[in-house]
TrEMBL record:
High-level lineage: Bacteria, Pseudomonadati, Pseudomonadota, Betaproteobacteria, Rhodocyclales
Statement: the UniProt record of this protein carries the keyword Transmembrane helix: no
Identification of the protein by name: Sulfonate ABC transporter substrate-binding protein
Entry-linked InterPro entries: ABC_SsuA_sub-bd, Solute-binding_3/MltF_N, SsuA/THI5
Superkingdom classification of source: Bacteria
Amino acid sequence: MKLISAKRRSLFGALLSLALATPLIAHADFNPKLLRIGFQKSAATLVLLKGSGELEKRLAPQGVDVKWVEFPAGPQLLEGLNVGSIDFGFVGEAPPIVAQAAGANFVYVGFEGEAGAAEAVLVPKDSPIKSIAELKGKRVALNKGSNVHYFLVKVLEKNGLKYSDVTVNFLTPADARAAFEKGSIDAWVIWDPFTAAAEKQIGARVLANGKGVVKNYQFFLAEREFATKRADVLKVVLEEANKQGQFIAKNHKAAAAQLSPQQGLPADVLELSLSRYEHSFYPITEEALTSQQQIADTFLDVKLIPAPIKVRDALLKR
């Protein structure tokens, strides 16, 4: 059995700033006949793939079983990948940066195209704030180490402000929504479907979204040993995920109806959210790597990671 030291796990947990401890399976030896997939309920493609059973059908002839493990957010999923409780997962662009800085042993295996419109800076419908520039000195909430952390840095920069010009409160999406409704924060930086839910349900107003500001790619990641030894399995997963993505891209309304009971959100909220993602997946490109390196360098500048990293190190050596 492989063990992770208490010191390293403590560092990893501190860097990812987990709000709540997530129960994890002990680190297991590599099992070529088991694929454990980490997913978040907000990940539409994987939620539909799980419900369809198609992946299990494709892998059954190879004698490979599939186990689905749900996580509340990307940072927790990355910790699961790091300690060996899952082999594969799908997260936004920022959590892998923080995880790599903490020594997580994963590799990039694919990504979803740009979705800048799927993250936004929100203010209450009756807020006097009309522009990003007016956030100077204001209280802004976000999930630490997430995609929107990077988005906030870049959207402030675009509007002549520094990260230090706002007071940042680190809150999970659920806690941030509560604080937003109570008026204890001035703005909320968040991603879909939470953005769409706030717009539809409480009339939140979008000050700016990430279109033209950030790429907001989403990434498929795999544990390095699994990716090295079972590339054939990962190929099947990516093919099946792409089929679900194409269904969503062509059928927002039907996909939203299927997802509503599983994600616990009204279909109209999900339809709006789905319209802001591309739902097409690609092999890792130089452009994607460059974008990730820019995030890593920015996170170093704002002291979110303790030392420089080379994103390219998280690729399989060919």
